[in-house]
Amino acid sequence: MGDNQEALAMITDQAGRLLEDAVTPQRLKSLLQKPGSFDRDLWLQTVGLGWAGAAVPEEAGGFGLGWEVLCALAGHLGAVTASLPLIQNTVLVDALAQADCGYSAVIEQLVSGEAIATLALFDQGDNGISDTPQLVYGSSGLNGVTAVAPFAAVAGFALVHALREDQSQPALLLVALDQKGVKRDLRNCIDNARGAAALDFANATATPVAVGDGASSLLMRVAARAVIATAFEQVGGAGSCLQSACDYARERKVFGQPIGAFQGIKHKLADIYADIEIARGCALDALAALESNPRAALAYAAAARVTAITAYEHAARENIQVHGGIGVTWESAEHHYYRRSRSLALELGAAPYWRDVLVDHVELLAEGY
Amino acid sequence: MDFNDSAEEAAFRAEVRAWLQQNASDYTEPLALRQGDPRIAEMGRSWQKQKAKGGFAAISWPVEAGGRGASPIEEVIFAEEEGRYHVPVGPFVGIGINLAVPTIRAHGTPEQIEKFARPTLLGEILWCQLFSEPGAGSDLAAVRTRATRDGDDWLVNGQKVWTSWAHTADWGIMLARTDPEQAKHKGLSFFLVDMRSAGIDVRPIRSISGESEFNEVFLTDVRIPDSQRLGAVGDGWKVAMTTLMNERASAADQSQSLPDVESLLAALGEQGRAANTRQLASLYAREQGLKYFGLRQLTRLSQGGNPDPISVMSKLVYANLLQDVSALGLDALGLPGAFAGRENHEAKKFQYGYQWSAALRIAGGADEILRNQIAERVLGLPGEIRSDKGVPFSQLPVGR
């Protein structure tokens, strides 16, 4: 544990510094300009430092630092609005390792960062995980169109939720994306820096990772893990918004005093602080529950997700408001967070879906962790 | 941090459960007494004595100081298990143990600690908190109650208000002005007042719940020996801050008599749940987020540490959460919720929560004051431009 803590502190320290230097406003703005953008240079730089394998167990070829390191890295990414598929790669490796049947070549590529993963778990038009997926996997392969998924524009592998035709059961499929039957549909959207695309499959080759009840439970495992790590990314982003708003409120003066002295501003910021701390508490509890009460992890994840969405959205909106006109110019960095708060709130299922999950599973929260 | 019990902790929990089963059998149902009834204070006193006898009154205090010498985790475990009963802890724990004891421990002389802190833990002293005044609530440092030196004593004159349980208290912790020519925060001192002293007149205030837990306290030429001053002359504000930090830290403590989201779910039923998902999820998530800090706070406090600024946030969020939960609970129960009698325990819980939350949003630091504190102390935002800085208190307008 001591060694792990040291390694964890080292890697997250390094991450904070690297991201602060590398992720300049210019770089972020250029990524926002066209659909499906991805910062491949930053990705290569960070996988060179082992980030893609940091959380992966040693037996799967990673550093074995656990979900804690993924969450810490996600927090750093969120703080500067960098988009890297760390969560996607780590979660897919975990899912494949659960299935435990000869995915070692894929796992190796994901751990080294040579390949990128995307979690394409949603149907178009859905705001959550459906019990009856619209994509179909049958004798002619995989057919149908997924909802827009982050990193689908650049991923080598996708985890896809589909209906297995012959058994009339949902299945989780691993799909290699560099094949003839796969079209990536890039769309201009509010946050182009996410490398997002819809995946259009036409008789695509795919491998079932889990089917039926096995698929449902694996899907919930995948969703809980992705949601918890993303909550840290959201809390990181919200924290930066609060910091930026406070900095500006100390500097900007009107009516002979800093605007931060007015209760109209400072009370707003105090409320955002409370939202962020509540979200952080939920995220930390959810991370702990992964280890100590996995049965309840989904419920904890839902609480983390609902509070993280609220906190980031509140912080990103009011950060712009505190900045006044300057906050809505292209030059300002505030809109990077405003965009990211929205894209992270929608990827992995929107708030209404997770509210339902939370209310349906509250009894599990009462068990503690 | 892992809150699953280790083997020793599980053994301790079992011991606590067995002891509670033996000793708390009178408290399996909500008390049928009105809040403020002096019998509650007396029951609290005997409950505290019973705990002391069982060795659970000062679990994490060192053995030589009369405690059990156990870990803070065990303190948490006891609180959790005790929380399953409707024990009358209110006035005793809420004021004496949560506020007076940590303040005396932090600022008292060894003699004062010996005379007041230990006996409180052993169930011998009931306390009240003589802080607020008609002209000093949110602006607490504006207290006008005057303490003037008279030989080895102080003579105190003034009026306190919102003093919970003053009518049952043996002693009070009091903030008073010792030098009106100093600036507001500098001319204050902190005293321990024997509530049976001559010149103290306690009058009940009827609150929105119809109950009388609060009082006005009038002090006329009350004589206090200088040995009952806590901290240096002029350091009253600093001492009071310890009390206030602890008050905020404990304000979010859950009680059996207050509704939580779980009781809300029960009241809503399946249909009500579906119709209120949006609000329920937000309430539940907020409650869950508070728990994270609550458990850590309890651990820190029982280790003798100071509450951190997060406790200000917790109090702010909790009081509002309680109001939201209570309002939705009353909605869920429909007309019976608002109009049911006291025999309806479910409705009573939400009614009480609805009324108490309105008080809690003001008591121990109003929402607005807490937001100022978070903004200024945690976020580093500038204070408002003030006209009372550096001005002798005697020249300031106060009250209305």
Describe, in plain words, how this protein is organized in 3D:
The complex is a heterodimer of chains A (369) and B (400). Chain A is an alpha+beta fold. Chain A is built from 12 helices and 10 strands. In chain A, the strands form 2 sheets. In chain A, strands 1, 2, 3, 4, 5, 6, 7 and 8 form an 8-stranded mixed β-sheet that branches. Chain A has a two-stranded antiparallel sheet with strand order 9-10. In chain A, a hairpin with a 2-residue loop joins β9 and β10. With 400 residues, chain B is of the alpha+beta class. Helices cover 47% and strands 12% of the residues of chain B. Chain B has 12 helices and 8 strands. Chain B has helices spanning 7-23, 38-54, 72-82, 90-107, 110-121, 236-251, 261-275, 277-302, 310-333, 335-339, 345-360, 367-378, and strands spanning 127-130, 146-150, 153-161, 171-177, 188-194, 200-204, 215-225, 229-230. In chain B, the strands form 2 sheets. A 4-stranded mixed β-sheet of chain B has the order 1-4-5-8. A 4-stranded antiparallel β-sheet of chain B has the order 2-3-7-6, with no helix packed on it. The mean pLDDT of chain B is 88.
How are the secondary structure elements laid out?
The complex is a heterodimer of chains A (369) and B (400).
Chain A: H1 2-22, H2 25-32, H3 40-48, H4 66-80, H5 86-99, H6 104-112, E1 117-120, E2 136-138, E3 141-145, E4 157-164, E5 169-176, E6 182-185, E7 198-204, E8 207-211, H7 213-251, E9 253-254, E10 257-258, H8 263-292, H9 297-323, H10 334-346, H11 351-360, H12 362-366
Parallel strand pairs in A: 1-4, 2-4
Antiparallel strand pairs in A: 2-3, 3-7, 4-5, 5-8, 6-7, 9-10
Chain B: H1 7-23, H2 38-54, H3 72-82, H4 90-107, H5 110-121, E1 127-130, E2 146-150, E3 153-161, E4 171-177, E5 188-194, E6 200-204, E7 215-225, E8 229-230, H6 236-251, H7 261-275, H8 277-302, H9 310-333, H10 335-339, H11 345-360, H12 367-378
Helix pairs in contact in B: 1-3, 2-4, 3-8, 4-5, 4-6, 6-9, 7-8, 7-9, 8-9, 9-11, 9-12
